[in-house]
Design brief:
The protein has about 300 residues and is α+β, with helices and mostly antiparallel strands. Helix content is about 25%, strand content about 30%. A 9-stranded mixed β-sheet has the order 1-2-8-9-14-6-4-7-16. A 3-stranded antiparallel β-sheet has the order 3-11-10. The protein is globular, with a radius of gyration of 20 Å.
């Protein structure tokens, strides 16, 4: 366990481990959100199968990606010992949420009738409100979205001699109100990560990779809980009701860090980059690197169209 300052805030890092929410609680870490005992019942350990990932940046990063026809680690991050990585997040879609809900309900009630299935109201939409599920991002106004399978193909072809890259459990990072599970992806001949365990394919762990998708067992889908889950075993039905007060809790998410050697650029055809990027709003707290500042969605959309025209 290592405690240090990052993002101007305290963080605790557990290298080579993906510690579950219950395991983190057992460690007795001084964190008021993690130790909140008043959280109402909610869908715990919901498994999402996510096929897409996203990389978010500001205007200078956007221009650099277009100019390079690909992704590279910014030199200023390399100089600040941020690790030799390009960072991607899971891009959870509405279809992913729907599939996860069906799997969750089936695990609760394996023998529901067709009428019970038909009359079951949606539940996850009331709880999947953390930043892991939002269109907004703290890292900038411009989001590139790729299928993970396609991204791995580009990475494997360019840096892994055509072989499949290696997935490893890199770390768990606990912030004030956030749990970040990091997966590192690297070529087989890079031995920097030999002491880190391989990422599981199928198990009871936090996350893993199987058949082109990351599965993620989400343990805390909200930052603020205003609803509670009510399970009626007799009727084989789950309902959602209002909680008497707002409760604040930690939220969890998965990041994928692609190892990049100095000078490497993960190249993608510029026309494809144009198709895979969209503008988004910036969420609080904003983690854009100065001197950049967040743009409104309308301004970001106009700026993106202008840059595409300039570079097209």
């Amino acid at each position: 366990m290592m405690t240090q300052k990052a993002r101007d805030c305290k963080r605790t890092t557990f290298e080579g481990h993906h510690l579950s929410l219950s395991e983190l609680k057992e460690l007795g870490i001084d964190n008021k959100y993690l130790s909140n005992k008043n959280i109402p019942a909610y869908p715990e350990s919901v498994v999402f199968s996510v096929q897409k990932v996203s990389h978010v940046t500001g205007e200078s990063g956007l221009r650099a990606i277009f100019n390079n026809s690909g992704f590279r680690q910014p030199p200023e991050l390399a100089a600040n010992a941020q690790g030799p990585f390009i960072w991607w997040s899971l891009a959870v879609t509405s279809d992913d949420i729907y599939s996860a809900e069906e799997h969750f309900l089936t695990s609760l009630f394996p023998r529901r009738s067709s009428s019970q299935i038909r009359n079951q109201p949606s539940i996850l939409e009331h709880f999947t409100s953390s930043k892991a599920f939002q269109e907004k991002s703290a890292y900038g106004n411009f989001r590139f979205t790729f299928s993970l399978k396609e991204l791995l193909w580009h990475y494997g072809k360019q840096f892994c001699s055509g072989q499949s890259p290696v997935f490893r459990v890199y770390e768990t990072v606990l912030y004030k109100q956030e749990i970040q599970y990091t997966v590192v992806v690297h070529p087989h001949y890079i031995n920097l990560y030999d002491d880190y365990p391989r990422l599981p394919r199928q198990s009871d762990g936090v996350c893993g990779y199987y058949d082109g998708a990351m599965w993620w067992r989400c343990q805390a889908p909200s930052e603020v809980y205003m609803n509670k889950l009510e399970v009626n075993s007799c009727r084989r039905r789950v309902d959602v009701s209002s909680h008497y007060k707002e409760e604040y809790y930690v939220w969890d998410h998965v990041c994928i860090a692609f190892h990049m050697e100095p000078g490497w650029v993960l190249r993608v055809d510029r026309n494809k980059l144009f198709k895979r990027v969209n503008a988004c709003e910036v969420s609080y707290p904003c983690l854009l690197r100065p001197p950049e500042t967040p743009l409104s969605l309308n301004v970001a959309e106009r700026k993106l169209a202008q840059i595409k025209t300039e570079m097209g």
